[in-house]
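Minutes, project check-in

Agenda point 3 was the complex the collaborators sent over. CS summarized: two entities, 607 residues total, and the question is how they sit relative to each other. Sequences were read into the notes so everyone works from the same version.
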Amino acid sequence: MIYNEPSPLETKIISQRWTMENSAAIDTYLATDGYVAIRKALEMTPEAIIEELKASSLRGRGGAGFPTGLKWSFVPRNSGKPSYIICNSDESEPGTCKDRLLMENDPHQMIEGMLIAGWTIKSNKGYVFIRGEYRYLIPIVDKAIAEAYERGYLGKNILGSGWDFDLYTHTGAGAYECGEESALLESLEGKRGIPRLKPPFPAVVGAFQCPTILNNCETFSAVPVILRNGGAWFAGLGTPKNGGTRLLCISGHINNPGVYELPLGFPFEQLLNEVCGGMRNGKKLKAVIPGGSSAPVLTAEEVQGLLLDYDSIAKLKSMAGSGGIVILDEDTDIVAVALRTIKFYAHESCGWCIPCREGTTWLKKILTRFHAGFGQQSDIELIGELANNMLGRTFCALGDAAAMPTTGFITKFRSEFEAYLAKNHLTLEDTTPELVAIEAH
Amino acid sequence: MTFSPELEERFSKLLNSYPPGRTRSAVVPMLLYAQDEIGRVSQELVEEVARRCGVTPLQVDEVIGYYSMLHRKPLGKFHVQVCTNICCQVVGGEDLYHHASSMLGVGNKQVTNDGLISLEEVECMGACSWAPAIQINYDFHHRVTPERFDQLIAALRDGSYKQRAS
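CS then shared the predicted structure for the full assembly.
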């Protein structure tokens, strides 16, 4: 099912089957070039497959934007150990709701991408790690896996190649941190999802301490079409070093929020006004969170003329991240959004490293106090200082992901924080520990 | 402990899906699937999962506090989860949560007296473009207004609510 009308401005490639009848069925997939790419891949060397991916400029769609071909090239292919293919479908970055649609509407495309990865490193086993909240997708993906076994695309001696590959679903149970690749691997091993020290990276020491290709669901889903049509074709859809199309998840104060597939480098204004039908209720744009809640906010001035690709957004010291774009209008209370953002990270910090565990908790406490109406001028500096002290000092990116947006809100919308000070409605007598405790809960 | 034949089948598939000697991997999925059937993670379940996965009960215990979907206390028959994360927040998610709380007369993670409905304010559930969103057990409901929320609750109460199979 799809949950919003598609836009005629979309370039439907990895979402091309979403509106078809029985789009998740293997027959639909086979009738629309499905499993053609794996046949092609089986005739190719690992080096040739990786070269094709490099030529495509496909970059990780989960958040970090790392070049996929390069990631695959790091996996040792003769370590003597088993190796694994893991699909990160633990989609949890606030603002992001695309992997859900990929699995619901076209699970075979993801499976084929994982198969190609499996063949590339001669892995015999893969897992689709699906967040617990997406429980309804497990029967859908399991059914697709069963169909692929029936038709000989999974299991023993795939298409007569002599190569075996088994694929399974694995459910998470509610933890944002498990979207971080090394925490995901810990979780897959039945432990608390805490990140591992890197290096070694999962390419070398990954699932069950073995070499592993671990990619986002959308990344795997883009692989089959790249092998079918060629890396150069895919690269040509986007901008230099930012190949292809990607699914952008648009939310917030716009007329037509939704998930749309657009080429990398698509102009922001066109997205806002044409694809999404403009601002809701004719309001003015105030700010944009361009790549999930971890991405520092951009002001309405900054997004003028912005092209939506990894490098253009990085130039503004933010990130394209997971493709979740939150549109905020002139009436948005930035302090409230900053507070809700940090509440999320404080809730999701796994507690493994102190700068993140304590930093997110204290930022939440200070912002709660501020938002409740008894902030002080010095809090603004304190928030900035705390956030800066978290940056780069944690095992994984969650600490940065909490600090960066906080710094963004407070530096770009400082006047809104100061306006809060001016309208303080609570006096010192109101600041009981109980009130703070209740508010901070 | 005995589970339904469907769950037993799922468990045996699960235990066979991991590499040799890696049955610990089944701990979290097994807990979640069993919770779906028996309503909570009981001490008996902890010991059962430990036995089946070949780990100590402590190794099971330690994950329960970590994963937010695992509950030691019983939830309502229908667990209503309201997202208030930013994408939902800015289009009325927080108001919807407060509406839900006062309408049901329960607070966060509390269950109605009849045991039918539990409420939880949750983090992003992956429905950002169709916000504000709620989940009833594993079913998503998009663009939920307070009026729509009341209709859903009425359907839960009069038995007309149709749950998606999972």
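Noted in discussion: The mean pLDDT of chain B is 96.
Follow-up: revisit at the next meeting once the mutant set is ready.
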